């Protein structure tokens, strides 16, 4: 991967993306890790294997994994309305009372991605009707998971993922040990993003981790570990096609289905390629994970720049060959 090494070195040196943490699998085995650039405006030291990045929505597949475990154990019924498990979440909205964990994980809840301009939270279509990327629903799923397990989400993640998989630089909440080596985000024109210190786990976006830690989770997933065979297979069944357009959120259903990209229980899917993926977008941070279940090739990277997704056009062909309709669906521009 000499070309990839050179590309990442040149990209971070240019300043467009201050720092990158990237790890890859080849045939299910760790094949490469790359660390380039600096941690941010707050710390000009180099990114290394222990530099903690905001993983943003790469949190969601990890939460889905825990939800499936709770389902296996008879604690969480994925088809039972969340309203019946832990009470009301969207006041005065009768449609919301139909929302299940299944709807949340497949992004068919009818709830918006984020609530903008102080608009009241509400459903925009009947749950299960179609796909519209909806991060806001994950807070309700979190509440249900915590209720049935009598554990906080951070405790669940620590007990079921971080500790068993040796993810020593990962948490859903800010840890003081991260203060000595963490990345700071950067927006499009280079302005630094003030650091957020999340004290309470957020199921849709609060994961703090490293590429080395997260590729360990992906390796665990590809090896079919941690779940019974039936649950594992159900994880990757295409449940609903995404929608074409400039935004994964499609609340009014104006865009036609994208027949090349679907959603499973917490993962985006490329059914014709046998691949799963997810992307992450926090202010000043971007992330992507993509893996091929047949070849067991995979890549994950974190970048402390709003331009970080744009690495995809060079990185993915080097690590996970083949056509990837998710890249077109996500409308990722070039550096």
Q: For the largest beta sheet, what order do the strands appear in spatially? A: 3-2-1-11-10-9-8-7-6
- The CATH topology annotation reads as Beta-lactamase
Q: How many beta-strand runs? A: 11
**Low-pLDDT regions:** none
Query: Whole-Å distance between the termini?
Result: 20 Å
CATH architecture label name: 3-Layer(aba) Sandwich
Any overview of this molecule?
This protein is an alpha+beta fold and 335 residues long. The protein has one domain: 3-Layer(aba) Sandwich (Beta-lactamase), CATH 3.40.710. Helix content is 27%, strand content 20%. The protein contains ten helices and eleven strands. The protein has helices spanning 2-14, 59-72, 82-86, 101-106, 138-149, 153-162, 211-222, 229-235, 312-319, 325-329; strands at 19-26, 29-40, 43-46, 53-56, 207-209, 240-243, 257-263, 268-270, 275-282, 285-292, 298-303. A nine-stranded antiparallel beta sheet has the order 3-2-1-11-10-9-8-7-6, with helices on both faces. The chain has a two-stranded antiparallel ribbon with strand order 4-5. A hairpin with a 4-residue loop joins strand 7 and strand 8 (268-270). Helix 2 packs parallel to helix 5 (138-149). It is globular, with a radius of gyration of 19 Å. The model has no long low-confidence stretch (mean pLDDT 96).
């Amino acid at each position: 991967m000499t070309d990839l090494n050179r590309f990442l070195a040149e990209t971070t040196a240019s300043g467009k993306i201050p720092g990158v943490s990237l790890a890859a699998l080849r045939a299910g085995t760790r094949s490469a890790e790359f660390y380039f650039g600096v941690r941010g405006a707050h710390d000009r030291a180099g990114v290394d294997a222990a530099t903690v990045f905001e993983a943003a929505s790469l949190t969601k597949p990890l939460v889905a994994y825990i939800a499936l475990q709770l389902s296996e154990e008879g604690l969480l019924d994925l088809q039972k309305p969340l309203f019946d498990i832990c009470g009301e979440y969207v006041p005065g909205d009768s449609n919301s009372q139909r929302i299940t964990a299944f709807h949340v994980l497949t992004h068919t809840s009818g709830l918006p991605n984020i609530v903008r301009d102080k608009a009241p939270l509400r459903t925009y279509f009947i749950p299960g009707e179609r796909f519209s990327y909806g991060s806001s629903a994950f807070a309700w799923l979190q509440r249900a998971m915590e209720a049935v397990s009598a554990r906080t989400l951070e405790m669940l993640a620590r007990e079921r993922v971080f500790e068993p998989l040796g993810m020593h630089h990962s948490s859903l909440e800010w840890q003081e040990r991260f203060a000595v080596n963490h990345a700071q985000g950067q927006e499009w024109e280079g302005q630094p993003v003030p650091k957020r210190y999340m004290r309470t786990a957020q199921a849709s976006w609060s994961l703090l981790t490293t590429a080395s830690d997260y590729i360990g989770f992906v390796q665990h997933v590809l090896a079919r570990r941690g779940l019974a065979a039936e649950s594992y297979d159900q994880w990757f069944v295409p449940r609903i096609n995404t929608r074409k357009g400039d935004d994964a959120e499609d609340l009014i259903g104006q865009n036609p289905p994208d027949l090349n990209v679907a959603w499973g229980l917490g993962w985006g899917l490329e059914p014709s390629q046998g691949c799963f993926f997810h992307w992450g977008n926090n202010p000043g941070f971007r992330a992507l994970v993509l893996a091929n279940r047949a070849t067991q090739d995979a890549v994950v990277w974190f970048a402390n720049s709003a331009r970080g997704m744009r690495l995809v056009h060079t990185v993915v062909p080097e690590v996970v060959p083949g056509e990837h309709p998710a890249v077109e669906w996500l409308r990722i521009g070039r550096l």
